[in-house]
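[agent] plan:
  1. take the single chain provided in the ticket
  2. run structure prediction with default settings
  3. attach structure tokens to the ticket
  4. add a short note for the reviewer (M.T.)
[agent] executing step 1
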Amino acid sequence: MFKLITQCGEARRGELTTRHGKIQTPIFMPVGTQATVKGLTPAQIHEVGAQIILGNTYHLNIRPGPELVEEMGGLHTFMNWDKPILTDSGGFQVFSLAKLRKITDKGIEFRSHLDGRKLFLDPKGCYHIQKSLDTDIAMVLDECPPFPCERDACEDAVARTIRWAKEFIDYARDDGFLETGHHVFGIVQGSTYDDLRVRCTEALAEMDFPGYAVGGVSVGEPEEEMLKQTGACAPVLPKNKPRYVMGVGTPPQLLKMIAQGMDMFDCVMPTRLARHATVFTPHGTLNLKNERFRKDPRPIMEADNYTCRNFSRAYLRHLVMAKELLAHTLLSIHNVHFFLDLMAQARAHIEAGDYASWSAAWIDRYNAGE
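[agent] step 2 finished; step 3 output follows
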């Protein structure tokens, strides 16, 4: 169940209720592709304020397998995480394996990126994998068009996405999945064609999903095109359901999409950049490999997270240069906290009624750098 609490312009402040707790939106979801957020323990993810994390159907299906996860008590028990989990359908991962897959109207034939064995993913199989994982929010199987994409190919992808979404939600409803408190989100595709995006959104809205996602953005298109597509979807998406933009983005992009009326986001950026010595601040990013941080006694920034409360830039740079694994953990703690705290600030300013002016000033400061 989703409750829209208040709005400031198009920016929305909401609450999504799941079996494992309530999620305050707008929210950023740390990515735990293989039942782990890279470099962080569940306790550390709790401490930085995560309300929900992601797992990935494609990867968990290949290793360790949904049967094992189910036998171990489901994904929450398996990874010792007691808050909500969203699992992606695997459609994007199959898209990224273009040389290893073949798309048909029935589903996707592909080869494992680990051992080359032949696999097949269709809506029914995708549903049953996520049911075995016992996820809180299951994503339908979709076809993610590349960028650029010819219109005819995109129309075919949208038609399959709509058809597969109907098959998936029918399986879930017939199986009682929604009656037990689980959610299923439909995924809007359409590449850079506004009318196809709208067509897909309207078709999915008729199916009355518990929530909706905008997929197929941040796949190589310019930022302005990405924002154009999310902006095209927002007015057509049901007002009383959560809206999730998949696989994005930078802090300014998140704030701009919140202003369009989007509620939920995920991205590997915080942990991936941490592994490359890059940290986020309100004045942009810093690369701690830089010599100027060698004797810097300051924390990354004044922030209430374990890393910033306890360690200097000089020490963190030392860990990076010494290739110590602790660097990955400490920088990931900071980066994930930064994204989650940004969402908390956004929620507060939507409630205060000054989101537009606050976010514009925040983006200007971030883009100006130190």
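[agent] step 4 note for reviewer: Residues 277-368 form one domain.
[agent] ticket updated
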